[in-house]
Amino acid sequence: MKKILLPLALLLVALAYFVITKQMRPAPAPMGGMSGMSGGMSGMAMQPAPAGLDLARKRRSDAGLFVAEIAPQSPDFDRNTIHAWRLTLKDAAGNPVSGAEIKADGGMPQHNHGLPTRPEVTPGAEPGQYLIRGLRFHMPGWWELRLDVAAGAQHDSLTFNLMLE
Amino acid sequence: MTRGAKILLALALLAGAGWLFWQMRGPAPVSDSERAMARRLSLISLPPLPPDPSNAVADDPRAAALGEALFNDTGFSSNGAVACATCHQPDKQFQDGLPLGRGLGTTARRTMPLAGVARDAWFFWDGRADSLWAQALGPVESAVEHDFTRAEVARRIAAEYRAPYEALFGPLPDLPETGPASPLGSESARARWAALAPAQQQAINRIFANFAKSIAAYERTIAPQETRFDRFAAGDAGALSPEELRGFRLFVGKAHCVNCHNGPRMSDDFFHNTGVKSPHTPPTDHGRAGALARVASDPFNCLGPYSDAAPEDCAELRYMARDPAPFERAFKTPSLRGVAGRAPYMHAGQIRTLSGVVEHYNRAIPGPSGHMELSPLNLTSGEKAALVAFLKAL
Ligand SMILES: [Cu+2]
Q: Rounded to an integer, what distance in angstroms lies between the CA atom of residue B306 and that of residue B216?
C-alpha cells in the first residue's frame, strides 16, 4: 500500500497541473501597455510595445539641433482615414524654424512594414508651424513616425513613437 | 488506513472537485474592455456612408434605380448572357461561391462580395480602382467577363436607357456607328477606337463613366446585414455560445486577427501579404504591387477628367505609397461579415474551408514571393475550433 503512495501523489499533482494550465491557456490576458488615443479602449488586440517606449509628442532631434512637437490636427482623428498632424519646429535655443524641408516616413517596427501612404509636410500659417498631410495608420499598435529635417545647412532627424488603437 | 493514505485520499478528492469545478465553470464573463472591442467590430460602430465626391449621382435614388437595372442587364456583354449579377449574385452575398469567376471566360481571381463595399477606398483584390464607379468599368471590357466595349455600352444606353440616363446626365450626343471600339480591347476594337475623333472618344468615355456611376449608386445601397455577433456586441451576452466567445477572445487577442480585420466591416481596407499560395509557379499575380502604377495613371481615377471630385478630395490617390516592393503579393483585406456563407476563400479561392483558413494563419508559411506579415500562432486544436466557431457567428 505504502509503496504506491508516492507515485500516486506525483500523478495527482501532475494531473492537477495539466488540467489547470490547459484550462487557463485559452483565456489570454489582455495585452496592454499603450496610451489610449482615439477611444480610450484597452488594447487587448495589440502586441505590447517594448517596455519604456518613449511616447512623448515633443522631443529633441537625434543630434540635438531641433525640438519638434506633433499633435493630430483633430484630437479625435480616425486612425485609418487619411488625416493630418500639426508639427511645431524650433531650434535648440527655442526659436521657431521656418522654411525647413521635412520628409515624413515611418512604419510598424513589430510588423516590419512602412507607412501605407506617402505623406507630405507643408508649411503652416505661423512661423515654425507645419502640417504633415496624408497620414493613415491602418493597423492598431506601435507606429514610428520619422522626420528628416533640413533647415539651411542643418540636417537632423527624429523619431516619434505612437501607440494607436 | 494509514495517516498518509488518508491525507492522499483527501488530496485526491480535493483535486477531483477542483477538476470538476474547472470543467463546469462557464467562460469568464465578458469584461468591459472586451465589450468595447466587440462594439468596435460591430455594425453599431458603422458610421453613415461617407459621400463619394468623385460621383455626382452617388446618392441620387434615380441613379441607383438605373444602376440596378444596368447591374442585372445581360445585354452589356458580347454574348448577351453576362451581367454583373452573373458573378455578383444577390442571393449569394453578391458573389458566386466559385474559386474563380466565370463570365465569357474564367477570371484570374475570386469574385468579391459587395455588402458595404462603398465604404472602401480601393477596389479589386489589388486596389487598382480608386472609386466604386471606376471599378465598374473594368469587368465590362474584360475579355473573360462581359467582353464588351465602351462604344457598345454608349450605344446600348442610347437605345435602351435614354430617358432615365438623360434625366440624370443631360441629353445624349449623337453617337457614331462604330461597332466594338475601345482603347483596351482586341486589335480590331482598338483600331476602330483610334479611328474616332478625340471629341467622339471623350463623349463615349463620358457615357461609359456615367453608366458606371449609376451602377456605383446602386452598389452604395448594398449594406451589411446585422448578425449574431452584432447582437452580442449590443449587450446580448447569450448571443454567442461559450465556444464562440472563446473564439472572439482569440480573434482580438492571441491570434491577432484584429490587426487587419478591424472596424465594423472587419477589414482595414488595406493590402497585406499573408503568404497565400499562388495557383501558378512562378506567381503571375503580384497583388497590390502590380496595381500602383496602373491606378496612378488611370484616366478614370479621382484626379482624371471624368471624376466629379476636386483635387483636394482625392487624398487616398494623392498620398498613395508608390513603391511596389513592399506590396508584392499583398491583397486587400476582405470583410469577414457573412464569411461562413461564401467559401472558398482568398483571392483565388485557394482555401476551401474556414478551418483551412485558420490552419493557414496558425502555420504562417511564407508565400511564393514578397514579405509575409504573419508569424505562427501555436493554437491548440480547441482554439482553432473556437476561432472557426466565432467566424461562423459573423
Ligand atoms: Cu502593421
A: 14
Q: Does A12 touch chain B (CB under 8 A)?
A: yes
Interface predicted TM-score (ipTM) of this complex, two decimals? 0.84
| Sign of the CA dihedral running B155, B157, B160, B163 | negative
Of chain B residues 304-333, which have a CB less than 8 A from chain A? 315-316, 318-322, 326
Q: What is the pTM of this model?
A: 0.89
Structural domain count of chain B: 2
Q: Which residue in this structure is represented by grid cell 508649411?
A: A123
State mean pLDDT over A75-88.
93
Strand A66-72 relative to strand A58-60, pairing? antiparallel
- Tell which CATH classification among 2.70.50.60, 2.130.10.10, 2.60.40.1930, 3.40.50.10540 matches the domain A57-164: 2.60.40.1930
For A15-51, write each residue's pLDDT tens digit: 555 554 444 433 333 333 233 333 333 334 457 788 8
- Minimum Cα–Cα distance from B121: chain A residue: A81
Taking alpha carbons only, the member of A161, A159, A152, A56 closest to residue A104 is A159
Q: How far apart are CA B259 and CA B255, in angstroms?
A: 9
